[in-house]
């Protein structure tokens, strides 16, 4: 439950606009540089197929972390497994999702 207009607007921005699926390094770069420019938090969604394509969950997190540092991203960035299996969720959590 939110208590203020600002909290409601902040929550609305995250849930409606800034959940973006990533598929490769270029998508991660594009999303992170854009959310930094807009000063808007983001949730990065990763499917099991995309994680496999990018070299696994640990590699996905390494790319996100390193690009986050490289571009000096100052807004919150979260990563979540989008429509995964139990096994995939376990592996994603181990990798730092």
Task: Walk me through this protein's architecture.
By secondary structure, this protein is α/β, with parallel strands linked by helices. Helices cover 59% and strands 13% of the residues. It is built from five helices and three strands, in the order αβαβααβα. It has a three-stranded parallel sheet with strand order 1-2-3. α2 crosses α4 and α4 packs parallel to α5. The two termini are 25 Å apart. The relative contact order is 0.18.
Spans of at least 5 consecutive residues with low confidence? none
Helix percent reads: 55-70%
**N- to C-terminal distance:** 25 Å
Global Rg: 14 Å
Which term fits the overall shape?
globular
What would the average pLDDT be, to the nearest integer?
88
Largest sheet: 3 strands, parallel
Quick structural summary:
The chain is α/β, with parallel strands linked by helices and 97 residues long. The protein is 59% helix and 13% strand.
